[in-house]
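Onboarding guide, step 5: your first structure request.
Type a short instruction followed by the sequence, for example:

Predict the 3D structure of this protein.
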Amino acid sequence: MHGYYPPGKALREIELSTELSFSRTPVREALRRLASQGLVDFVPNKGAKVATWRQADLLQIFILRANLEGYAARRAAVEITDESIGTLTAISRAMEAAAMSKSDSRADVLSDLNDTFHHAIMSSSGDGRIAGVTEGIQQVGLVWLTFHRYTAEQLERSLHHHRELIHAFQQHDPDWAESVMRCHIFAARSALSESLLLASRY
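The system replies with structure tokens like these:
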């Protein structure tokens, strides 16, 4: 989910099946799941297409994420195990290494690791419902705000937030963890807003 298909693009089962080397059945099921997450629209007599979101809708998504993921971080600070903290630390270090890489796939690697980091926090919250509630909301934000859009300063800020979240979890401080997560999400919203504003000028 890295914005490979632009908003409004038709998603034809047979073409996707050929491109992805899958039969049409799993492709059809994947499209239905993406539709349930708000990433795909089904148009009568025309099939599926990539959903188009207004800027205001996209920015609103980050308010929902801040509330939900802030809550998850608060819960995780109380429930998290040393093993899970170790996992988050390893992911954070992998992101630091990827950020320094000159690889063409750097942004995709960062996006995947970031997704894993956030899901690990959800899993550590002790609330099995929170991951299901936030999955679709997260994916909308991640599709539009990939690491291809980040400036060097924005990327460093994001990585710093991850490090600080880990420190908050190590201290089992729910107030600290929640506040950092909310700042992290709102900083991502600002990055998206700046990126969309810049794109509108060209």
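Each response can be followed by summary notes, for example: The first strand starts at residue 10 and ends at 11.
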